[in-house]
Prior knowledge:
Organism: Alkalicoccus daliensis
Protein name: Anion transporter
Distance between the termini: 30 Å
InterPro entries: Cit_transptr-like_dom, DASS-Related_Transporters
Structural class: mainly alpha
Number of strands: 0
Oligomer: single chain
Order of helices and strands: HHHHHHHHHHHHHHHHHHHHH
Shape: globular
Number of domains: 1
Membrane topology: Multi-pass membrane protein
Helix content: over 70%
Subcellular location: Membrane
Radius of gyration: 21 Å
Largest sheet: none
Amino acid sequence: MTIEIGIVLTIVLLMLLCLIKEIARPDIILSVTLLILLFLGVVEPAGALNGFMNEGMWTVGLLFIVAGAVQQNQLLHSMVLKGLGTGKGPRRSVMQMMFPIASLSAFLNNTPIVVIFAPIIRRWCERKGIAPSKFLMPLSFAAIFGGTLTLIGTSTNLIVHGFMLDRGLEGFSMFQLAIVGLPACLIGIIYMSTFGYKLLPNRQAELSYAAPANEPKAANTAKKAGFESYFSIIVLVSMVLMAAFEVLSMFEAALAASAVLILTRVVTLTKMVRSVQFEVLLLIAAAIGIGTAMEQSGTASYLAEHLVSLSSGWGVVGALIVIFLLTSIFTEVITNNAAAVLMFPVAFATAQQLGADPTGFFVAIAIAASASFATPIGYQTNLIIYRPGGYRFTDYIKVGMPLNVLYLVVTVGIVSFVWL
């Protein structure tokens, strides 16, 4: 181990501790970490700024604008509420709620979906005399499931995709992740509406949950949806189709969709600024810079060598399991984006040393970074429903750990068959 590698490892470990202790916002912690690495000369200025020029980061920003136009759509709300209302018993209602939520999450940002539907579902539970704790965790998990179905399902997928493009590799196609994500999603929904439902606490929330001021009323049905509701969906579908059939790159399709929505005033400049989560973009850019520092300093190769040595008796599949587990552990205690960025260079170096197709490792990272089920702090949607659902930390462990194991088995099995 060189002095430079030792410095990087020490700083990254301190960063992880700060993230776990939550001494500041994640984007602030990562930005300060990047500045320290830059000041110490571990990463060159061009490398530190690499994240701000990353195509994946800019694509995420543009998708916030598109999501801002679609997320208040009355048609989507009616679809979810209809599923809840027709369920024959609570378990059936859980399943019928999770399918449309996962479908929406495949194309929209997870966080606003949960923010919008959490108070609606909570009030539905109160009217039916059902504990909200039986529905809010499935809501969050369904949003996470859906994020693994498409390239644009979550910012984590786009970060990994951007990293692949930066290294001259072919990035993910629109639905490539669904090879793993769809079976995992179906298994996850079945689990949450059967065994997982039994493990969910039957507990009322400790605090009342105030719905957002702009939350639409359930009475606003599809018939009352205006021009903007239909037009925003048309733009979203067009964007997805252009990217899926490679008419445009994902970045170009998102840019075109955002421009159309702004020019037609479906999205005003004020609404655009409110839609973009700038702290998420800063976190992504800083995390990419830290990942560059890990590569330039040789830290990624150093960790890869030890990982290969650790799994030497198990071959490529063993290395894949270790990569998935490490990513999953990181995402439970820090953030999904930071976990993906930290593990990408390690996975890339590991695949190179083993002479394996790195695509399978990248798919595993994208899935594992999103599979945050065992703690409320690993994924923002889990935090959103933590107190409104009256959950305790142990509830996530009890319900989420079996789900993490299922995702590990499904991912490793399919990736090994398709890519390795």
